[in-house]
Amino acid sequence: MKKNIQMPKLSEQMESGVLASWNKEVGDVVGKGEVLFEIETEKVVSEVESMESGVLEAVFFEAGDEIKADEIIAVINCD
Amino acid sequence: MKVIDGTSTDVYFNLAMEEYIFKNFMDTDYLILWKNHDSIVLGKHQNIFEEINLLAVEKSGIRVARRNTGGGTVFHDEQNLNYSFITSQEEGFSNYDQFLTPMIGALNKMGIPAAKRCNSDIAIGEQKISGSAQTIKKGRVLHHGTLLFDSDLSLLKKLLKPTEGKITSKSVKSVRSDVTNIKEHMGDPSLTLNAFKERLLENLFPDGCEKVSLTAADIAAIGVLVAEKYSQWEWNYGLSPKFYFEKQSLVTDKDGQSKKVVVNLEIIKGKIVGCQAKVDELANAEIQEVLIGVRYGYQEILKKLSGIGLVENIELDALTACFL
């Protein structure tokens, strides 16, 4: 089953954030709880852990992109 | 809150110590005070290659270190005091006031007219004396900042001069600020950094504070982190985001002829993955092939180019400079 990964909304005021780096590449196995990507906003680095286990099948944004909260940024194949 | 007074001036050790305490010391809140010998410290998501003069830094031997928090490139010398607060995350995200307010309060009590400026700076008037940044992991926040006490930034500023080529990358950029040293505003020319540090602690904790030390086991574990991560090229340089480099140079060859060298590079994880090099409009296949997979840097490029003999009658040094 494929799960969409969304850009998190880290606070009420946060409308978008910068996806600062991917910690996994397409094709990598991702475990639930492993750090999948990092966000940097106002010099704060926040690690975002994966809520799913599976293989990272696709990513739709590059490191450095500014992305709206809740936008779909990747797909994990949980099969 | 417990206080750890760092004794090392090794930037790799200190960054590793910060991470180690952040991830392992969960019993209470911590304040770490530390200083580094001359170092360039960049933010987690910066491209080191667009921040520094690569050749000057390689020649100087000054350490380049990537930290875990966001933001831009800063310079540390032993007259700059770093402070790190480690606490549990309060409600919301990116709360700088939680840490800046007590710090500014303490500085004010010491007679320093410091105030908050922008989101995360402390300044005296329009001149910055402190910048700060954070990282958040599993409900714990690491907030750290600099305190420019009596730093000599002139040498380090020369290392900042960027390449004359054009770098395109989606990295976090540095923001340059006008700075001043705290000592100039304290009216006591004999005041040392150590004395300043002690006074700062007295004003942060009027009821006193508990100082704790690292154990031998802590220091050994931190040493492992230094060896495996903080001293590694892969962490400091290789973690830079992908970027493109373009530069046109006019060089004089050994016979005094002027030649135009145009270089286009694609660099991923600090290594050259794509290379176009033209001398007087003609692509040079030898150069283009020999540089693939090479770490981007003066010494590495020089070494590879020296292996292919004299190229287009151009001196090796001059040719290498076309790539930086």
Could you describe the 3D structure shown?
- The complex is a heterodimer of chains A (79) and B (324).
- Chain A has 79 residues and is mainly beta.
- Chain A has one domain (2-77): OB fold (Dihydrolipoamide Acetyltransferase, E2P) (Beta Barrel).
- Helix content of chain A is 0%, strand content 53%.
- Chain A contains no helices and 8 strands.
- Chain A has strands at 2-6, 16-22, 29-30, 35-41, 44-49, 54-59, 66-68, 72-77.
- In chain A, the strands form 2 sheets. Chain A has a 4-stranded antiparallel beta sheet, with no helix packed on it. In chain A, strands 5-4-2-7 form a 4-stranded antiparallel beta sheet, with no helix packed on it.
- In chain A, a hairpin with a 2-residue loop joins strand 4 and strand 5 (44-49).
- Chain A is globular, with a radius of gyration of 12 Å.
- Chain B is an alpha+beta fold.
- Chain B is built from 10 helices and 16 strands.
- An 8-stranded mixed beta sheet of chain B has the order 7-8-9-10-6-2-1-12, sandwiched between helices.
- In chain B, strand 14 and strand 15 form a beta hairpin.
- Chain B is elongated.
- The mean pLDDT of chain B is 93.
- The chains are: A mainly beta (79), B alpha+beta (324).
- Chain A binds chain B through residues 10-12, 14, 18, 20-21, 38, 40-47, 62-65, and chain B through 43-45, 68-71, 92-94, 96, 119-120, 132-137, 169-172, 239, 241-242.
A few lines on this structure:
With 79 residues, chain A is mainly β. Chain A has strands at residues 2-6, 16-22, 29-30, 35-41, 44-49, 54-59, 66-68, 72-77.
